[in-house]
Amino acid sequence: MMPLMAREKLDPRIQDQLPSDEIIRAISKIALEQAFQTLAGFCDKFATEMEDGSIPMVSGPDALRGFAAAIRSNNAKTWPKASRPV
Questions:
Q1: Does 86 map to a domain?
Q2: CB 42 within 8 Å of CB 67
């Protein structure tokens, strides 16, 4: 399996502080699983709101755009923007 990052290209002062590739893979897998569950929850909520009449019944591209807007809006409220470490 290929390494996830080229450690030799990183600042030598931090090379030993990084987690192993196995740990990074495990964390990535957990993050993806959580993302799938979150996205599925948004799908359920969006469908329920359409059924309840909370949002207009739309289909096709308009439904996908509405769903994307709902995800972006919720994501901006829930997660702060990532900043690059100095």
A1: no
A2: yes
CA distance 16 to 23: 14
Q: Return the structure tokens found at 29.
A: 């897998």
Residue 59 domain-assigned?
Answer: yes
**Quick one: residue 2, left, alpha or beta (phi over 0 = left, psi -120 to 50 = alpha)?**
beta
Domain range holding 66?
37-77
> Measured between alpha carbons, how far is residue 74 from residues 57, 77, 78, 81 in Å?
20, 5, 6, 13
* Structure confidence by residue, pLDDT tens digits, 19-75: 888 888 899 999 999 989 988 988 898 889 888 988 887 888 988 888 888 788 876
